[in-house]
Amino acid sequence: MSENKGVTLWEKILYGYGGMFTYMISGTTFLSMYWMFFLTTVAGVSAPVAATAATAVTAIKAVVMAVAGAIIDGTKPMKWGKYRGWFLVGNIILLLFTGVLFLRWDYKNEITYVIVLLVLYFLQQVGYNISWTASRALVGVMAKTSVDGVGLSAAANIGSTASGILYGIITPIVMGWFAANAQTQYMFTTLAFSVLLIPGTIAMMKVSAPYENGEMYNEAVAGKGAPKAKVSFKEMMASFKGPGAPYLISSTIMNAAGGFQQMLLVYYTTYVLNKPTVATTATSLGSVAGFVMSLLTPWICSKTTKKNVYFWCLFVGGILYALYYFIGPNATLFLLLRVLTTLVTTPIGTAMVAMANDIADWDEMQGYASAKGFVQSMMGLTIRIGMLISTAASTFGLVAIGYVSGTVPEGKVLDGIMKMMAFPPCFFYILGALLILFYKLDEKEIEQYRLSKLEAAKQAAAE
After folding, report:
1. pLDDT-flagged residues of the chain (< 70)
2. What are the Cα distances from residue 244, in Å, to 39, 257, 404?
3. What's the domain count of the chain?
4. Exposure check for the chain: N or C terminus, fewer CB within 10 A?
5. Tally: H helices and E strands in the chain
């Protein structure tokens, strides 16, 4: 029998590494930053059509994320386990369909061209969202205590930020290899990144094996701590009761800030700062800052509640976002503010995942099935809905302020870009902070419940 000493540092490192390259190509960096830019500048798609496509993509992400957890929790486990099996399937799909999103050909009808890309994007997002949901659900499976949960959530955040650091180093080199042909440059760059999914997938499958297939999983079964093979839809919907509702509403509002910075960063650095390369520099520096703060987040969470961390990071982050409007075309101040904003807001991601795990255990305490996959997918859905709001607002906002594809903006258009980078994120962050005050969950009670399950597993395994 294992000694149940908790998740080791090496396991946390492998867990974070397992998801790192998924984020690099699809989650937070290359695809999210360059796809809209690719459509308008390389593929020659008009701004209104590209804005519609970008909004449709965000809707696709939301729809797929909404059903990802239900698919995972509502089906029988594969031979690799419930969450490990779907993580593997998701990454295989992701590997097959990511590179083709940057296909460019001489089209006669831009609507048809965009529709084809949207179909491919849907398939790619099926893979990404299932992989993401399964990996986040594994936090609840692997964590034996709240400390484990925060540690694994921080490891996921570290993997995400580390991917941004590597992205900043690798992207200029890889894109330089294919610079001779702008029409294929983005596609081949994405394919090069996709290959890196393979070692990450192997790492995640290896580190999670004992918890879904090995000795630790067998102990959990003996102590009745393992998840049900299949969870009914009614049991999944119980996640919206109690603390689940204010958490999901606050998270949705907070995530409505994200799309403005993602969608407008390249436009901001290219036209406001007149330094296009600052976009990559900002991503790299932000990732370094995020990496450092992710290391400190478990310690911060140990000094207070996850709810407090979430609230104050949102509130202060909202104030910092407003400052983007007042720095003007100063690249140095922009980079400094980017680093400071990242330092303040990085713990939010760790707190979100750990709080979702708390909600799943709260549901179990109330007598419902522990639908970890569904709860994590609902948390992911708040990201998608928030991004849908901000993507629609930012892309159509470009049209509203008079931006025209292929032209260099000036005057009120530049001012409009600066305002959209600052004030909407400020509003959504502060509103999200205020809404989380309605989240009522006793973290000490949850911890006692987890410890009682762990003790039951020990006793049952010893008999």
Report:
1. 1-5, 23-30, 32, 164, 182-183, 213-230, 232-233, 238-239, 370, 406, 457-458, 460-463
2. 38, 21, 43
3. 1
4. C
5. 18, 0
> Residue 181 is encoded by which pair of tokens?
């042909």
Q: Compute the Cα dihedral for 115, 119, 125, 130 and give only its sign.
A: positive
User: Is 3 part of a structural domain of the chain?
Assistant: no
In sequence order, the 6+-apart residues with CB closer than 8 A to the CB of 63 are none
Classify the C-alpha dihedral 132-137-138-139 as positive or negative.
Answer: positive
Whole-structure pTM value:
0.72
The span from the CA of 294 to the CA of 284, in Å, is 15
Which residue range forms the structural domain that includes residue 430? Answer: 14-462
What integer pLDDT is reported at residue 340 of this predicted model? 95
pLDDT of 441 reads 87
Provide the 10 A C-beta neighbour count for residue 414. 18
What was the pLDDT predicted at 153? 82
Cα–Cα distance for residue pair 186/418, rounded to 1 Å: 27
Residue 4 counted as domain residue: no
For residue 378, the domain's CATH number is 1.20.1250.20
CB 136 within 8 A of CB 376: yes
Structural domain contains residue 9:
no
Whole-number Å distance between alpha carbons of 308 and 433: 10
pLDDT of residue 54: 78
Q: Note whether residue 6 is domain-resident.
A: no
Helix (H) or strand (E) holding 5: none
